[in-house]
């Protein structure tokens, strides 16, 4: 079976730096939640940026449904990320100048869709994850845990085929962490491939498999 998302012979180094990845190969199938683990500085977050087309590999390929996508142009990559990917960054990566709702709706700017319907679905996600804030609330007015759940809403809004998450439970209490993991599991059951970078043994234990980096 073809992996939903795959890396083949992936290599990367930052300018004048030691290679972080060399000939790295792995596949991530629909329906599974995979933990990527390893010591700090090993390149786990960089790997997510490569898989998510936010960095270009020095060598090798990134494939989606068996099709190479790493060499697409910037516009094509942006559309693919908006239509097929969901991201949860370690620091939530919310735009402080925009409302919480507009942050969640960010990817709708890059894909075709019904803005009114998407706004309704965004509010349903906000309610589900306990961040049903007033319409004009800004990210600077919420806690770190709330910001991470807002980022989760953004990632899930388009029912993505791939979810990439960098330490998604780092700012959450155990109860909130369970809610996030359950959401990832639900999306995987619906056919997504979920890749999580984490140091949390409890989160690793709830994944289908672990890939040490």
Automatic annotation (TrEMBL):
Keyword Nucleotide-binding recorded: yes
ABC transporter domain span: 5-213
Listed GO CC annotations: plasma membrane
Coiled coil: none
Span of the signal peptide: none
Keyword Nucleotide-binding recorded: yes
Annotated InterPro entries: AAA+_ATPase (IPR003593), ABC_transporter-like_ATP-bd (IPR003439), ABC_transporter-like_CS (IPR017871), ABC_transpr_LolD-like (IPR015854), P-loop_NTPase (IPR027417)
Pfam families: ABC_tran (PF00005)
One annotated GO molecular function: transmembrane transporter activity
Highest taxon in the source lineage: Bacteria
Keywords for this protein: ATP-binding, Nucleotide-binding
Listed PANTHER family: IMPORT ATP-BINDING PROTEIN, LIPOPROTEIN-RELEASING SYSTEM ATP-BINDING PROTEIN LOLD
Family: Belongs to the ABC transporter superfamily.
Protein name, per record: ATP-binding cassette domain-containing protein
């Amino acid at each position: 079976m073809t992996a939903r998302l795959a890396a083949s012979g992936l290599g990367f180094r930052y300018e004048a730096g030691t290679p972080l990845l060399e000939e790295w190969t792995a596949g991530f199938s629909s329906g599974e939640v995979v933990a990527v683990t390893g010591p700090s500085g090993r390149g786990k977050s960089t790997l997510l940026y490569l898989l998510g087309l936010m960095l270009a590999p020095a060598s090798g390929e990134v494939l989606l449904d068996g099709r190479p996508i790493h060499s697409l142009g910037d516009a094509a990559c942006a559309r693919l990320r908006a239509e097929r990917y969901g991201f949860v960054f370690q620091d939530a990566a919310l735009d402080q100048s925009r409302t919480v709702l507009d942050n969640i709706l960010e990817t709708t700017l890059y894909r075709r869709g019904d803005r009114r319907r998407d706004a309704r679905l965004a509010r349903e996600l906000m309610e589900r994850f306990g961040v049903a804030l007033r319409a004009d609330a800004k990210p600077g007015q919420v806690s770190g845990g709330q910001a991470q759940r807002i980022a989760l809403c953004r990632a899930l809004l388009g029912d993505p085929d791939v979810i990439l998450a960098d330490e998604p439970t780092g700012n959450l209490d155990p109860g909130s962490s369970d809610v996030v993991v359950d959401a990832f599991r639900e999306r995987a059951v619906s056919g997504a491939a979920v890749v999580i970078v984490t140091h949390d043994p409890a989160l690793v234990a709830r994944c289908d498999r672990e890939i040490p980096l």
